[in-house]
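Re-running Aliphatic sulfonate ABC transporter substrate-binding protein to confirm reproducibility after the cluster update. Everything else is unchanged from the original entry.
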Amino acid sequence: MKKFLSIIAIAVLGLVLAACGGGNEASGSGDKGKEITIGYFPNINHVAGMVAEEKKLHSETLPDGTTVNYQYFPDGSAFMTALETGDIQGGLVGPGPAMNHFTSGAEIHVVAAGSTGGTVIMARKGAGIETPEDLKGKTFISPRVGCTHDVQFETMMKEEYGITSSRIGGEMKHVTGKPATYHSMFVTGNVDVATVPEPWASVIEAEGSGEVLVDTPDVAYGETLPAAVFVTSQDLVKNDPELVQSIVDGHKKATEFIQNNPDEAKKIAIKKIKEITDQKLSADVIDNAWERINFTYEVNGDVLQDFANSSHDLKFLKEKPDLEGLVDTSFIK
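Result of re-run:
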């Protein structure tokens, strides 16, 4: 497995792309010797991608002779750019980036989910934060502006506590950075609160630099929103639905493997995260993170629409979104 490369085209603050063969044309269902590339993030929500890669499950479902590559991403914007340019043919991304790019004109389909849950709001020890009401004047961090975890956090804060980001005239300062750095940023006091995808919330807990302020069930859309969705291009769905079915079948096999073999799936997650990020996570951290996540390929379009409405309400989207056509569940039935 290749180690992560240095920052090349996208500033990723140390968590960079391991491009293992992007930019190839997708194989047609009857073609031999073609390549496809699947993308995912080194987060627990994306374990299906790790399992599919490690167990070579896409190779079992794709046409004979197809070469399967994997590319790792630090954030949704980088992933969606790669999908739109054809550098990858599909993979796992947060629902926020998928929705945002779709409403901006990207011709994509969500064809399955990857997981639900896994977002935790962590407060830095010593920041004087006991409840969310204490966040006025504080600095919070998320992976990207308008990403899934950002929208979940800001929706909760606005709807339940009447506190908003300075981006829309409110009292909280917002910065961004990769989740693997949040523990060190807590230690240095650079941020007060983090809206964190697992396993990085459990890392903060284990290291003792922060405490859970709001756990997964109480974050906006915490247990119903897909934490990761499997997306591909509308062009691929239209022109080669058999190939898309083969890709989704591999993803389904990976999800079912996680459900039926959680202990082995956890070991794979530890191994792949170490390879991708050079951070070794303990079994205790993975066990803790696992409790906050439900691995499923079933996807509910209505929940995504509600989430999109929240993103518009927070002014991440200029126009009220209409997600009709985004979700295509025909490949998971």
